[in-house]
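hey team, just a heads up i'm posting the complex here instead of the shared drive bc the drive is being weird again. everything in one block, sequence lines first with there labels, then the predicted structure for the whole assembly after. its two chains so it's a bit long, scroll down
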Amino acid sequence: MTKTLKKPYTIKIGRRLHYSRKLSILTTFFALILAFGVAGVFFAIIGLNPLEVYSYIGGVFTSPILLLESLKRAIPIGLAALGLCVAFKMNFWNIGAEGQMYMGMFASTGVVLLHVYYGLFPDYLVLLLMILGAFFAGGLWCSLPAFLKAKMKVNEILTTLMMNYVAMYFVDFLVYGPWRDPKGYGFPLSIPFPDYSKLTIIFGEFAYGGLLLLCVTAVLVFIILRYSKLGFELRIVGESIDTARYAGINLSKVITLGGFIAGGIAGIGGLTIVSGIIGRLRPRASPGYGYTAIIVGLLSALNPWLILPVSIFFGGLFVAGDILQATLKIPGAAVEMYQALIFLFIVIGEFMKRYQITITRGGDS
Amino acid sequence: MEELVSLRGIVKHFPGVLANDNVDFTLRRGEIHALLGENGAGKTTLMNILYGLYRPDSGEIYVKGRRVEISSPRDAIKLGVGMVHQNFKLIPSHTILENIILGLKEVGLIINYKKISEEIKKLAESYGWRINPDTYVWQLTAGEKQQVELLKLLYRDAHILIFDEPTSVLTPQECRILFQALRRMAKEGKGIIFITHKLDEVLAISDRVTVMRKGKVVITKETNKTDVSELAQYMVGRPVLFTIEKERSQPSGEAIIIKNLKAFNDKGVLALKGVDLVVMNNEIVGIIGVTGNGQQELVEVIAGLRKAVEGSLIIDGTNIVNSTPDKIIELGVAYIPPEPLRYSVAPNLTIIDNLFLKAYRYKPYSNGIMINWRKIHEKANELIKNFQIVSPSLSAKAKSLSGGNLQRLILARELSGLIGERIPRLIVAAYPTKGLDIGAAEFVHKTLIEYSRKGSGILFVSEDIEEALMISDRVAVMYDGRIISIFRPGEIDIEKIGLMMAGVEIASTS
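-- predicted structure starts here --
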């Protein structure tokens, strides 16, 4: 027949049946190298020496002061990522950690304002109430899309993403409007938090108190996922909704509760921003920690123990971004770009882990 | 006789399995060649290699004496090799004609529908099939869909035809029509490979038979020089008992009373049109019927997974219709659904997770908040032993288990009284032996009978008439959303049951 015709190359994508841990770690490592490589090309294009840029980035992780700064940033990121561990475990693709953090900031600031203006409770209870408030606000913010998904199969990716903007602009409204500090010279800021409402009261340095909070939450998340009834149910729901239904699991209860816990932990992440890093509420208080948390969660393979180191790495990237902007006058967009590149290559790496790509030249018949 | 196909020394590895171990196979012009073997024997792998879906690790393929490389189904079709799969690959919302044209390569820019339509009609008539090419595929019965699949191949001049368990979806009558067509094709000089694990089909239709076991060819023989028991022995490697010792039980009290049950299927069509049925304690009631006559909907309504629009289900004086699945589980209803990997097992979770898929939330395995993994581990080890589940470890993923072991896992979970420490009041088993080899199916049968002796009422849905007759105390025929006849095994002969399944004859016995 058409024997003389050359067969074209064909690309086949097949699922890998299994992949080793070694391959998985290697792939992630390789993805990071590639991301920095490609980012380097861009840095070179905008007229910078990539090696100089990298040395600034590397410097973040070798200087104790900057490392402490990275740890501060790692705390909200890590908390939001821990919440995502719970959500992703049940296959609930929560893109809304950012919004849930804003709701956490809103609630904790609300508690502070109530206390300052009305003095309803003693000083030592304020921080505890802030944590509770942040947890509930973030949790409710996330349980709404979870409930809609469970009851009406509304796609959670859309609802959680959209609700981020609602939350963010709601906080904008508050600080530009009713919650603006009367002594703040018209700046859109809340009043500064009194000391008893700041996380610095635990160990003096916010990073230490935050670290404690992060570690305790990681242990709790681990226990929930591994040893609780709810954790077992989340795992089954994540594996297959049909199987969960068959097993007699109350889907709307489990999904809504799972969403509540996930959002609640992100809400506490929001609290650490206003009550730790900044010390007051201001618009756009989160530079996208909630989105970074998605990368952190996926990169940690939803393992609570890995969240801490991975968040410190990404926290460090934020610090590095600030330093690059200040010293090398790199535009903020370029910094965001190289963070996005890292994300992109990690996603590609995850794909390569799960699928095998073979290129063959069709056999001749 | 000319050899159409010759496979020589085919070897194919899958991770952890040697699916084909140095297999030789020949197909002659004008013969029907049965390929017999249990599930996992390597039959389908071998045929997928011939059809270009897999490439062999080593070995040679000859078609009409010429060495060929088949690297895709497209190559296979060019060589005249066609395959009718178990699951039809037709598009329901298109017509027969459109489905056939879809697979054609040389249609040009403008399709001459009229000409192709005429040709298809003629082709169908030559096999005695009445087919209107403009009918939509969703309107067809399983048998007709199979005919369309076959027409697709014949229209493309395929003359090496592979059938993968073609009778599994057919009524006895449809089988007969298929067999007639197969004989005719053989007479025309085509070669037919017939994959099956049913011995009677081998004897009924084939000229030669090749038996495979564990990836190897055991024997190739003229069919008229062998018999059922010899083939069975080749197939499983040991003599098989074809009957199960079973004393008829003495039913006492109703396990479930189903009254005038009505429900829709997924497409919104009324699939249960008023089902009435009683299952007594100690009794196995077999439900037979062609797949798609409401069996699936019936078991789902009982398990609480599908809403009924009318009727009642009474268990122990309580009407459980439209209760939630957990309430029904707590009442002691065990449900073994069809296709374990679709939802009764979470394939990526561990064996221990799957064993406790339902019991994890009840005492003593949970206190309502935390799970007592120590208790669960103890019990799991016991279940593994009692139900002879062969697995590398408790924390291996369920998908690593073979079909038989998976079904044992499900039986262990559903029957062993994990919830409330008692045996199930009612066991609903839908196609529990489908796809299992003889040994594993035998284990399922024995287990069900054992539990009926212990007092469980059992509703056993099967598409295998002989299996249902063998283990049931009473058999109900389901057709078009109703139970149209109930009888005891032996009261009605198989041929008549077949007619009832096809809706042709409605018996007046009850």
